Amino acid sequence: MVLRQPTGEPLIGTMLSEIYVPNVLRLLRTCGLGHVIVDCEHGYFDFQQVANLSAVSKGIGLPMLARVPNADRALLQKLLDLGADGILLSTTESAGQARDLVRFCRYAPEGDRGISTFRAHTDYQSGDTAELLRRANARVILLCQIESLAAADRAVEIASVPGIDGLLTGPNDMTQRAGILGNYLDERIMSAHRKVAEAARAAGKHAGIITGNASLMSACAAMGMNWFCIGSELRFMAAGAKRALTDCRECLV
User: Fold this and answer.
1) Residues 4-31: pLDDT tens digits?
2) How far, in Å, CA of 73 to CA of 76, rounded?
């Protein structure tokens, strides 16, 4: 998968929060975004909607991951079998959670994912099952979201788990749990981002952040982060509507 290994180029994508019309992915791709994370933690997407989105993502070459609230085997199995390119596990606090993610999302010998190959995730191919499983293990990307100061302190352990491809920080919950909600540039928060960036880089894996805050993105890029999930389709829509309304009012004066 194109996102599997870090390169020198930043990876810039967005979160899909609520809109499940499949062509929204075509729109985001045309705008230049490089990947999409479907929010199955806070969003109300069902499996059919995610499957439809995945089918379009495959057709246009836009990698689509799903964010999940926990490493539930049944949930992960369905999301991967319907064609999601990867998983982002929110609120990862330990290496044990990361190992569970790998166990349920990768086939043996890397993990213990259940086998059902004649599905969307293989493009309905049959034949050499061992080769299909090998390609799946090479394709699927697994990310852990670090959302507390304590988890950042364990970033080295989490990043070292075989099969984990990267760590993304979540500044909203991180500042909330630190008792300083919204104070993104507090030194304790910046130190946590730095620990995550250094741990991931030392392990040869992705480091990134989910934020639309330009100052925070710039600071994290300087730390060596390469993966940026910016805003969401809802925020883009709101920003565009506000800008259009302002422009309209100015031209009517």
Assistant:
1) 667 778 999 999 999 999 999 999 999 9
2) 5
What letter represents residue 234's amino acid? Answer: L
Check whether the bond before 109 is cis (ω within 30° of 0).
yes
Does the predicted TM-score (pTM) go above 0.85?
yes
Domains detected in the chain: 11-251 (3.20.20.60)
**Over the stretch 36-47, which tens digit does the pLDDT of each residue have?**
999 999 999 999
- Tokens 């730095």, residue located: 194
Q: What is the pLDDT of residue 64?
A: 98
Identity at 45, one-letter amino acid code: F
